[in-house]
Structure formats: structure tokens, C-alpha cells
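It would be a great kindness if you could assist me with a short task in structural biology. The matter concerns a single protein, recorded as an amino acid sequence and a row of C-alpha cells. Could you please explain, in whatever detail you think fit, how the C-alpha cells follow from the sequence? Thank you for your consideration; the sequence and its C-alpha cells are set out here:
___
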Amino acid sequence: MAGPDINATRKFGGTVDFGRAAGEYRAHRAGFPDRFFRVLSHRKWAVPGARALDLGTGTGTVARGLARLGLTVEGLDPSEALMAEAGVLDAEAGVTVTYRTGKAEAPGGDDSSLDLITAGQCWHWFDRSRAAAEAFRLLRPGGRIVIAHFDWLPLAGNIVAATEDLILRHNPAWTLGGGTGLYPGWFADLAGAGFGGIESFSFDHEQPYSHEAWRGRIRASAGVKASLTKGEVARFDAEMAKLLAARFPEEPLNVPHRVWAVSGIRPED
């Protein structure tokens, strides 16, 4: 849902540039489900009229959801290509989000000026301690940060596990597979920056994908189009099509995902 620094060297070697997959990112990467935003609203973590900044906004999936809830939202990302796609989606949704180019580690902005900061599907791309410190600076006392993920779940024999195996065959340096959708290290990131009231929630969600949409979603991932050459992507995609036809012919694919979020509050002065 969000793009890293397009010049960042990924942990598994090379450079990731999600801007190279911006169109497919917009078309095929499912955003956070509606239930995620209902939870934020129910818990009063996101309230109408609040001022919010969405870090690593990418195509604006979290920013747009917050705008629908009535917040005033700004999205920040290093990739202008992704944010251009976000603007298209915002217009289709009938909401307004202000976007600007920048990094979570140096977002600019005035001290104590925000009510809410979010980071959806991107915290692992940041220098986390610097990003957390900047979030603390920007939030007013009593303001809240929410770090969230919407991850596919590789289970024995399922489409996700098979897809991860295929990515590894084409990109052996890729290290982002095998996840559980849980990020215990993020608790320490928030506590280390001075946040209190730290809590989390999670729920599982089946996301439907057609074969075409799943291929597009995978092409738009860090291990494929964001890091491989055009020829390598084409070869990968051809094998992905064969895999789907042979082993997972039914459509739609109901792909298991987990939504997980951790939140902290800047203490009152």
C-alpha cells in the first residue's frame, strides 16, 4: 500500500523502486479493508476533523480511508509516481488528500501540529528509530500514531506459499516471504521514541482476486517489478500464469490476509 524510499537499498540486495509498478500498484494491490477503518473510528483513533499525516502513503490507501472518515489528511511519500496514482483513486472516491514528496525520517512540518500519524504497509522500509522520533515530534500531546499492516498469509499448500516459492526461484535474494502478519518489534520502536498507551489489534480477512488481478498484484510487489528487469518480470509472470492454471484454476482466489496494527500516544506534557 505504500512505497519506500525509491533509492533505498533493500535488505535482500539491489534497489526497490515501487514507482516502476505504479500503474499496477493502483490497479491491483488491494487496500486495507473497510473493517480496518471501522475499527479506527470505533476506537476513536480516527475522528472527524482531526489533522492526519500518512507516512509512506504510496497510492493513498490509508490516507483515502481517513479522508472518508472526515479527517484532514496529508500523504507523504518519496515516489511522485505512486502519489499521482493516488490522486486518480482519490478523485474516483470523491475525497481530497494533499500529497507531498518526502521521507518519514525527515517529514518536515511543525512540532506538535498533528492529531494522528499513520504508516500503512511501510514501516519496515524506514529507518524506524528516526521515523518514530519524527512522529513523536509532529504529534501534539495526546496525539496518536498507528502503524498497520495488511499481509498475505503463506499457509501450507495455498496460493500465497506457491507464489512465494516462485518469487524466490526468480529472485533468490528476496527475504520478505514467510510472514505471519505480526510485528512485535514495532512495540519497542514506539516505546523507544517515548510513546505510551501502546496497544494493538488484529483480524484475518480473505481478499478475493481474479487470476489477472493476482498476477498484477504480484508484479507490483517488492520482489518482482519493483526490483527485477523487464525481461525477468515477463518470465516470472508467464510462470505465474501457468501455476495458476495448473494448481489454482478456480476464480476468484480467496487469499488469506491478516490486518495488524499497533498504536501509541504521545504523553500529555
About this structure: DSSP finds nine helices and seven strands in the chain. The mean pLDDT is 90.
